[in-house]
Design goal:
Layout (H helix, E strand, L loop, with lengths): L8 H7 L4 E7 L8 E6 L2 E7 L5 E5 L13 E2 L3 E3 L6 E3 L4 E3 L19 E4 L2 E6 L21 E10 L3 H8 L24 E6 L2 E6 L9 E6 L3 E7 L11 E11 L2 E11 L2 H32 L15 H23 L1
Antiparallel strand pairs: 1-10, 2-3, 3-4, 5-6, 6-7, 7-8, 9-10, 11-17, 12-13, 13-14, 14-15, 15-16, 16-17
Helix pairs in contact: 1-4, 2-4
Protein name: 3-phenylpropionate dioxygenase
Pfam family, one: Rieske
GO molecular function: 2 iron, 2 sulfur cluster binding; dioxygenase activity; metal ion binding; monooxygenase activity; oxidoreductase activity, acting on paired donors, with incorporation or reduction of molecular oxygen
């Protein structure tokens, strides 16, 4: 396995939690016949589509001499390493060693292959460790599976730790300040009280005295993959479909970079779906990118030790809860690896 059970809690906490699903890249990043090198959880990986269109995700390391397989040649259902021609299939098994046919490498599974799924236009992968290579259960967000809901994916990469991106989503109050000039978050009170409400899949962090006005609530969901759900009111000029929802996920690229995934969704069908798509692409999407840029600029400007020099108050309960959860999971995973 590439992901070791013996990594420290600090390494896991910095580079991403194990034994769960993570989004990796948008599906459109992996064209048929092409090889795509990606970094996720601090490791180098190779994504490629086999001849039948299915995806494979391999550690980007030839089992012969360690050369990057991503520099190799796509052979339909396998990859030929550029260095010495060693061929590896989508499951990580060496199928041919052209320089020495019949050598003992052939037929052996020597390259880590991760289970992958595609949903909502994104590639998700199971990042297990040596003790948990088989994928765990995955329940996808309802907005990505309900045929009556139209979800549009937005992806960006930020130079921030993955935890900062998640904490930003569990901090609804910043909408009333950082995004005050947004076309959807201009209204609402700049003072509020919050509460945490437990759910079977995570918890809500919500304002107790305001609903349906601004960024008033967020739900953290842990369903095999970590994601957040939130809703922001929309003016009538945004077309049919009622409230505007966002499903958010992050990919820990490495200790200092994060891939952010935002699905903007509305419950629309038929002509209303067409109207929503048209308005989004021609008018609304640009405004949403402006809001995301505000988040990116703020988070990238924060010092690396920002979370070590804070004075928190009641609005930060959702962030505190999230930090305790992730720190505890990192310590559990590291302890389990050391014991194993």
């Amino acid at each position: 396995m590439t992901l070791s059970t013996k990594d420290s809690a600090e390494h896991i906490h910095a580079n991403g939690l194990r034994n769960q699903w993570h989004p990796v890249v948008p599906s459109r990043f992996v064209e048929p016949g092409a090889l795509r090198r990606v970094t996720a959880l601090g490791e180098q990986w190779l994504l490629f589509r086999r001849a039948d269109g299915t995806l494979s995700m391999l550690a980007d390391r030839c089992p012969h001499r360690g050369a990057p397989l991503s520099l190799g040649k796509h052979l339909g259902d396998r990859i030929a390493c550029w260095y010495h021609g060693v061929e590896v299939d989508g499951g990580g098994t060496v199928t041919s060693v052209p320089g020495l046919p019949g050598c003992n490498l052939e037929g052996k599974t020597l390259v880590t292959s991760l289970p992958v799924r595609e949903a909502g236009g994104a590639v998700l992968a199971w990042f297990g460790d040596e003790e948990h290579p088989e994928p765990g259960e995955l329940t996808l967000p309802e907005p990505l599976t309900d045929p009556e809901i139209s979800a549009l994916l937005c992806y960006a990469e930020w130079n921030v730790p993955w935890r900062y991106a998640m904490e930003n989503l569990l901090d609804p109050m910043h909408g009333a300040f950082l995004h005050r000039d947004s076309h959807t978050m201009y209204d609402g009170d700049t003072t509020a009280k919050f509460r945490i409400r437990e759910t079977e899949r995570g918890y809500f962090f919500e304002k107790t005295d305001q609903r349906g006005v601004n960024f008033d609530w967020v739900e953290l969901c842990r369903t095999g993959v970590d994601w957040v759900d939130l809703s922001i009111p929309y003016p009538p000029s945004a077309g049919p479909g009622g409230p505007f929802g966002i499903v958010g996920m992050v990919c820990p690229v490495d200790a200092g970079r994060t891939g952010v995934f935002f699905w903007r969704y509305r419950k629309v069908s038929g002509w209303q779906r067409d109207t929503w798509h048209f308005l989004y692409r021609t008018l609304i999407e640009e405004r949403h990118w402006e809001v995301l840029e505000q988040d990116r600029v703020m988070l990238e400007a924060m010092p690396a030790d920002a979370d070590q020099r804070e004075n928190l108050y009641q609005h930060d309960l959702g962030v505190v809860r999230l930090r305790r959860l992730y720190r505890g999971l990192a310590e559990q995973q590291s302890a389990a690896g050391s014991a194993g």
